[in-house]
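Weekly structure sync, notes
Attendees: PL (lead), two postdocs, one rotation student
Agenda item 3: pending single-chain targets
PL asked that the sequence for the first pending target be pasted directly into the notes so everyone works from the same version. It is reproduced below exactly as submitted, 240 residues in total.
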Amino acid sequence: MLSAIACAQTPAYTYRVVKTYPHDHAAFTQGLQYVDGYFYEGTGLNGRSTVRKVKVDTGQVLQQAALPQEYFGEGITVLNGKLMQLTWTSGIGFVYDLASFRPQETFRYIGEGWGLTNDGRNLILSDGSSALRFFDAATKKETGRINVTENGVPVRYLNELEWVKGEVWANIWQSDRIARISPMTGRVTGWVQMTGLLTPAEQSGVDVLNGIAYDAKGDRIFVTGKLWPKVFEVKVLPKR
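Predicted structure, written out during the meeting:
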């Protein structure tokens, strides 16, 4: 007989839209973070990969830096006055000064880069597998990894990441679900179902849900997607 723990149903959550904001429909969103009243966004695709500072209420791009055409930009995170950006298959990350967007250094990692967040001390990276990889924020050296599971089963395709109240939230590629993950055990503690954010008319030409930002001071969650016309501020609620 399976144990009660193994059979336990993972808590499910839904959402309520609080407010919508404009988003650049041409932005292939790979990373999103809210810092001091602004969105910082990383975009992908060769020849179109950028990091940018965005005005929340209007979607206006206030500042931008482009990656060389050979790099496909991926997840970003902001820590200690620096913005860090992964690339998909190049095994190289870029570090920018947050105020000026001037490149400061690069760092290397093995494998693909998908999502990136931080817990205040460590960078946390996803690579499309079921692993979360931890890197020392100062040295950029990998210090460990955990396997993300639900009832012992690996959860693959972890994509864009965000640190929310001591949990890692992860978009699951090609789905409308966000996994809430314990960074200590890798266990999925909840699923947030985000289906239905876009109207049928808005779904034309868009790609997958990808982009989670958390405003810690205001306790606000924002989500968007690749080539989406809007960013949504949402209230996450237990599913009944």
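Discussion points:
- The longest strand covers residues 12-22.
- The helical segments are 4-7.
Action: rotation student to compare against the earlier draft before next sync.
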